[in-house]
User: Fold this.
Amino acid sequence: MSDVLANDLITPDAGADPLLSLGDVSILKAAPVTRLSFRARPAGVVDAGSAFGVSLPTKALTCEVAPKRAALWMGPDEWTLIAPEEDLGDVFGALETKLKDQPHALVDISERSEAIIVSGEKAAWLLNTGIFIDFSLDAFPVGTVSRTIFHKSPVMIWRTGPDTFIVEAWVSFMDYVAGLLVQSAGELDAA
Assistant:
């Protein structure tokens, strides 16, 4: 898993001001992307990867990336597929065509979730203010993906670099998640 490829796909929203910018950590709103929730039986996984342009990971907590594509493992038969926003029609069509005779579920969730990019040497510390996961590189290496809870909100965490995390939450929870992260970062500023 290369952080360069993930950073090609998940980029800061050029039209948004930084939510936080301190020397040790920053929080940036991510630009919109196509997000698809995909579920299939094992027989459809290889075909889906072929149609999507990147293999779907079959190992828990992992991802596979290629230029402008990411497949994130969400469960034994569930993936989040990420592509550029403008590729929605092409990706959806390619998957539906390739899998037309196979049982599967493909749902556009692009408008359901938003993402922020938390980066810097204190990024793991900041996330640990509301998530009780060991974010050391040994325990949570680059490329690791996990669903978890941030305080009371469900989130998805994806480590895309040694000091960079993508935090995704439903749109209705993102102000809560981002607000608590910014508030917690005040402890860094006060120190």
In short: DSSP finds five helices and eleven strands in the chain. Residues 20-31+112-189 form a domain with the Gyrase A; domain 2 fold (CATH 3.30.1360.120).
